[in-house]
Amino acid sequence: MPLPPGLSLRSATLDDLPAIVGLREQVGWAAHQWALRLAIEPSDARCLVVETDDGRLVAVGSGVAYAPLGFVGNMIVAEDHRRRGLGSAVLDAVVAFLEDAGCTRLELYATEQGRSLYGRRGFGLIEPGSLASLPRDAALTASNEGIVVKGADAAVLDDLVAYDIPRFGGARTPLLRAMLADAERPTLVATRDDAIVGYGWLRPDADRIGPWMADDPAVAQSLLADAFRRLPDLALLTANMPTSNRRGVAWLRGLGVEPDPWDGRMARGAAIPRVEEAIYGNAVGALG
Questions:
Q1: Which of 102, 125, 148 is the last residue of a domain?
Q2: In terms of residue numbers, what domain contains 239?
Q3: Confidence at residue 138, expressed as pLDDT on a 0 to 100 scale
Q4: Which letter, b or e, does each residue of 112-123 get, where b requires 16 or more Cβ atoms within 10 Å of its Cβ?
Q5: Which pLDDT score is estimated for 139?
Q6: pLDDT the model gives residue 123
Q7: pLDDT tens, 85-119?
Q8: Per-residue H/E/C for the chain
Q9: How many other CB atoms are there within 10 angstroms of residue 30's CB atom?
Q10: Is residue 252 domain-shared with residue 140, that is, in the same domain?
Q11: Mean pLDDT in runs of 10 for the chain (288 residues)?
Q12: Are residues 170 and 106 in the same domain?
């Protein structure tokens, strides 16, 4: 869809971060600069902005390709430029990038206001996600099933990617590499008989754990117990779990935690092989 006169569409650079953060803050979203960098820098990601003739950014959107799975995110239009086709133009460009990158399944987290735009582009609602708040005083003792949890570094990248791909459904190597290199946000890896059976990215700046993958609830519990052990002053951790992880939802309820469902998940394209019951927490909507 062509843009109105005086506006142009281009790829974002890291110099655009302050303006993009400003757009996110206008709609009440956290800055998440680490996530924005991963939507701008890697070759398998593209962040697009709409710019006025005088250099003001008035719209943004991003796509991250984990072929065959792609994620759309950061879709924002400044309030004074809405209903002018900017969102449609950005979305069309993001979708084109993801499809050119080999993604056959596209997913996103939609606000109530954005659902009609995505619906017109072939996206439909899928099973809800949920937000779970896990308190420290829940019964979070480590499992005794031979599970070992340790902090991880770049040496495990290849093994972690190999573990993640069949469960998540796509190759998110740049995200996993960034996680392992982040000293402020440790990555915990769980093993059983020296084989990876789960991992979690601990993000104390947001009181969050995610991505968080586990082959069964005992692994999830061991990761969570270790996370709280490393953060003695933290009262709770939040995670975004798909409700299709029925074992995970049952485990949460067994801890006295009722997940809060949210029906903004949308997708376009045929479902891909993945293990939904291994997904205990996502990163952020734009990165999956």
A1: 125
A2: 130-262+272-281
A3: 80
A4: eebbebbeeeeb
A5: 66
A6: 98
A7: 999 999 999 999 999 999 999 999 999 999 999 99
A8: CCCCCCEEEEECCHHHHHHHHHHHHHCCCCCCHHHHHHHHCCCCEEEEEEEECCCCEEEEEEEEEECCEEEEEEEEECHHHCCCCHHHHHHHHHHHHHHHCCCCEEEEECCCCCHHHHHHCCCEECCCEEEEEEECCCCCCCCCCCEEEEECCHHHHHHHHHHHHHHHCCCCHHHHHHHHHCCCCCEEEEEECCEEEEEEEEEHHHCEEEEEEECCHHHHHHHHHHHHHHCCCCCEEEEEEECCCHHHHHHHHHCCCCCEEECCEEEECCCCCCCHHHEEECCCCCCC
A9: 12
A10: yes
A11: 93 98 96 96 97 98 98 98 97 98 98 95 96 87 84 98 98 97 96 97 96 97 94 94 96 94 95 97 95
A12: no
